[in-house]
């Protein structure tokens, strides 16, 4: 495709000048370390900047180099990541770090093919590493840049459709100015994050409003035209707080499952209208081959994932005898409440753990 001459000529210098004056001071913008930039991009996917900053600092304190990350056990990596969500990002980053050490002598590669061969690295992440860390003329296309480009050139098609994606990637590539990829790509993301926002874009402060087709047509609030949201399903999940000699039973999720590698209280989804206590009894029998006596409900907590919502119902359970077997789990352990913090749990389970700690404090 051919981009309008005025856009190609005028947009890069304007956006670069705006970015130099208005950019936010973010920790990953103070480094050119490929590892640190890669870590930031992994954490920022589908996560707000304000949420990422403290996790980024903690992660680098624990794993200051790519070699330190590669050498660490996955459990340690997931424990530091715990609460940030989208745990596949952490597993992929850890696996990719080991690949870089094994195949590239610990140096993050510059080549597109080498980067795309790493676990969890797609076209966007590869472009971010190549442009921001190495200043190579590589395009990037995240949600912010997609929105900016759709408005600039007046794209009304579904931005997630393959044909539209192809057009947007081509446009992003044409616009990257030689020698200024690092700042230009960050400037485009910044423009989308703070000016060309999803709702009520601040067109009056935009350095490119007179180049913007959506602004000219008064469509900046309507573009990009995202597909309609589908209803978000909700599931009730029964969890067993299985006690034995003041210890709780926890199970490790299989590595290839959702939330793989994390620990959890055994349980699962309610089937139909079955009583939640029966859900807990059935799931623990199926997962761990263990018969438990389900007692009273301890707490119910709500949690939202990207495509569904759950309510976790945690029941006290007793199991005086019998040995749990990881039939549908990767491992099982008996753990004291005060030691649960040593294990990485998903965010929903952490809400239950906080209630457990509060209970233990009141009983002392």
How is the biggest beta sheet arranged? 7 strands, mixed
The overall strand count is: 7
- Sequence of secondary-structure elements: HHHHHHHHHHHHEEEEHEEEH
What is the terminal separation in angstroms?
A: 70 Å
CATH architecture of the largest domain: Orthogonal Bundle
Roughly what is the average pLDDT, rounded to an integer?
92
- CATH uppermost class of the largest domain: Mainly Alpha
**Proportion in β-strands:** 5-15%
Low-confidence stretches: none
How would you explain this protein's 3D organization?
With about 375 residues, the protein is α+β, with helices and mostly antiparallel strands. It has 2 domains: about 5-215, Endonuclease III, domain 1, CATH 1.10.340.30; about 235-364, Alpha-Beta Complex (Nucleoside Triphosphate Pyrophosphohydrolase). Helix content is about 45%, strand content about 15%. The chain has helices spanning about 5-20, 35-45, 50-60, 65-70, 75-80, 90-105, 110-115, 125-135, 145-155, 160-175, 180-195, 215, 275-290, 345-364; strands spanning about 235-245, 245-250, 265, 265-270, 295-305, 310-320, 330-335. Strands 1, 2, 3, 4, 5, 6 and 7 form a 7-stranded mixed beta sheet that branches. α1 crosses α11, α2 crosses α3 (about 50-60) and α9 (about 145-155) crosses α11. The chain is elongated, with a radius of gyration of 24 Å.
Quick take:
The chain has helices spanning 5-22, 34-44, 49-62, 66-71, 74-81, 88-104, 112-116, 123-133, 143-153, 162-175, 181-194, 213-217, 276-288, 347-363, and strands spanning 234-244, 247-252, 263-264, 267-269, 293-304, 309-318, 331-335. With 364 residues, it is an alpha+beta fold. The chain folds into 2 domains: 5-217, Endonuclease III, domain 1; 234-363, Nucleoside Triphosphate Pyrophosphohydrolase (Alpha-Beta Complex), CATH 3.90.79.
